[in-house]
Amino acid sequence: MAWTLDQLNAATPAQALEALDGVYEHSPWIAEQALTQRPFRSLAHLKHALAHAVRTASTEAQLGLIRAHPELAGKAMVAKSLTAESTNEQSKAGLTQCTPEEFARIQQLNADYNARFGFPFILAVRGPRGTGLPRNEIIETFARRLNNHPEFELAEALRNIHRIAEIRLDDKFGYVPELGNLTWDAHEELAKYSDPGFSEKGQLTVTYLTEAHRACAERIEFWMKNSCGFDEITIDAVGNVVGRYHPASPGARYLMTGSHYDTVRNAGKYDGRLGIFVPMACVRALHQAGKRLPFGIEVIAFAEEEGQRYKATFLGSGALIGHFNPAWLDQKDADGVTMRAAMQHAGLCIDDIAKLQRDPAQYLGFIEVHIE
Ligand SMILES: [Zn+2]
């Protein structure tokens, strides 16, 4: 049966310690320290207190924690002597079904890794959705991390341990991070659109006003309309997708937030887009709770920032501060298509670009969630 936070807060020290047993592998000292911070206001508060105990521990104690972990698909798995949590994780990732070749490769990597760093390789094998990473991805990550600097790898091991602990805690408390899962899935979904020449190679490249780019805008607009509860949604004259969530009382100022949905060549899936999907998830949660804030929220998916198709950059955000230079319209891409022609083809109204300039007095400010 799942624990509740109230139960944990009210439990005796011994019971509370038992409740958190196994969250950090064979290392009850972490829970013991964190529990001095009771009562916890949220599961996030508890996670933070646990992580803090590790972060402020000595390097020896941190190394002890890392070394308390089993090797990946190692002797302990074969001998079935893993903790219940580790058994669950290694089998969810399919490590118990390795082919003989994969198994041999992992054993070699385990030996090389241990010789280089002096501790076992640790990876949160249940992955970002908690459902398990594919075996080939685990093996690739293992091989790649062998080349890391020892100090970086120590930090990487601890990061993975915190992620493992987070998933184990979510299980114990029966918590599903629904907004996080949605946000993750939105990135995966949007990454399916990629420009010709790259999509065939499985690479992500989305440049200004290509077919893939316009498909991304439509998809973001669709989500804003159908799953978030924005009050106004538009695609503006430069291709930005803009969603506005009204404040509690009309006339209040807006908080602007957002990031770009175009990409560099062979890009990562999260750069830019995280700054769009996170505030969209926030608006969705507010809308579902029937809540309005004292200020409005304007989420902008900027059409262009990376300057890949045309030499101009920040076309999307530049237009909002009156920095769109009309001379850019005559720039040509590698195929000789002018920006003007590309915009007309996309049905954008060039004459309206100047009207996009915002009045700073109407805004509280601009914030951007961003990952590179
Ligand atoms: Zn970026």
Q: What's the short story on this structure?
A:
This protein has helices at 5-10, 13-19, 28-35, 43-55, 59-67, 75-78, 84-92, 100-117, 135-145, 150-172, 178-190, 211-228, 274-288, 315-320, 339-345, and strands at residues 232-235, 241-245, 254-260, 296-302, 363-367. With 372 residues, the protein is α/β, with parallel strands linked by helices. It binds zinc ion.
Protein architecture, described:
45% of the residues lie in helices and 8% in strands. It has 2 domains: 5-172, Orthogonal Bundle (UraD-like); 180-367, Aminopeptidase (3-Layer(aba) Sandwich). The relative contact order is 0.09. A 5-stranded mixed β-sheet has the order 1-2-4-3-5. The protein has helices spanning 5-10, 13-19, 28-35, 43-55, 59-67, 75-78, 84-92, 100-117, 135-145, 150-172, 178-190, 211-228, 274-288, 315-320, 339-345; strands at residues 232-235, 241-245, 254-260, 296-302, 363-367. It has 372 residues and is of the alpha/beta class. The chain contains 15 helices and 5 strands. Bound molecules: zinc ion. Zinc ion is lined by residues 271-272, 370, 372.
Overall CATH architecture of the largest domain: 3-Layer(aba) Sandwich
Strand content: 5-15%
Class from secondary-structure proportions: alpha/beta
Overall radius of gyration? 25 Å
CATH topology of the largest domain: Aminopeptidase
CATH superfamily of the largest domain: Zn peptidases
**What's the helical proportion of residues?**
40-55%
Spatial shape: globular
Distance between the termini: 40 Å
Instruction: Give the count of helical stretches.
Output: 15
